Task: inverse folding
């Protein structure tokens, strides 16, 4: 299994109160899977994704990435795992506004110490792969929402991650751009990329091969708001 969570709990402290957000999550993702996590707002979807992505830590339980227990590791080790194994895509794109598309995609490779010529070539190839070969020198404010998200996906793939984590990737897009983005996800998955995608939109979730639902911090397999497909 690429990702394995067992007995994972996450609590937040709200002043004096301890608020349970994830309750006894047992969840695994195999290599090559394409999974959607559905659930209403506030149900714990982003918390789950952030724990899998080593951006946050579980309160208790065990999290394994590629067989290695990551719960309890220090910040340096977690950021190394993030940089090498995980690609992130967010609803709000999170591109750097003063860098063009090529430079945004190059950035994680420059942190990883890849020489300039190699990272230029790879960034251009990635942008071509997401359909933006003609937009390399465009800055984010010169791109549509769908194009910005494609740049973000190319950036997420820059260091050849083992899994792509996408938190509401179509949340800021119109339905046409969202549908085209889902075609891209499907193609990336067909070519071997493991994908975990959060969405509260059933039409988006249906693009994944597997759907799990979170409600009040509890995860169940294969149910879409009570209906089985
Ligand atoms: N850093 C935090 N501190 C306190 N509470 C938080 C924090 N992050 C999330 N929460 C709470 O945890 C619950 C789940 O949040 P989240 O995982 O973002 O839900 P979703 O992504 O499903 O909308 C919410 O009630 C939210 O208010
Ligand atoms: Mg969220």
Result:
């Amino acid at each position: 299994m690429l990702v394995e969570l067992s007995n994972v709990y996450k609590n937040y402290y709200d002043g004096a109160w301890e608020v349970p957000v994830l309750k006894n999550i047992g969840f695994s993702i195999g290599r090559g899977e394409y999974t959607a996590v559905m659930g209403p707002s506030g149900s714990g979807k982003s918390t789950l994704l952030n724990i899998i992505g080593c951006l946050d830590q579980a309160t208790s339980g065990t999290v394994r990435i590629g067989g290695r227990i990551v719960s309890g590791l220090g910040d340096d080790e977690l950021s190394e795992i993030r940089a090498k194994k995980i690609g992130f895509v967010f609803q709000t794109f999170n591109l750097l506004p003063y860098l063009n598309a090529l430079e945004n995609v190059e950035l994680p490779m420059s942190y990883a110490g890849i020489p300039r010529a190699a990272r230029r070539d790879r960034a251009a190839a990635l942008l071509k792969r997401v359909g933006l070969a003609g937009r390399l020198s465009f800055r984010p404010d010169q791109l549509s929402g769908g194009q910005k998200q494609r740049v973000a996906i190319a950036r997420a793939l820059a260091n050849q991650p083992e899994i792509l984590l996408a938190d509401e990737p179509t949340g800021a897009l119109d339905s046409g751009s969202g549908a085209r983005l889902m075609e891209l996800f499907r193609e990336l998955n067909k070519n071997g990329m493991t994908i975990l995608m959060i969405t509260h939109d059933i039409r988006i979730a249906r693009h994944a091969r597997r759907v799990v639902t979170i409600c009040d911090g509890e995860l169940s397999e294969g149910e879409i708001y009570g209906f089985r497909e």
Notes: Residues 3-228 form a domain with the Rossmann fold fold (CATH 3.40.50.300). The longest helix spans residues 175-190.
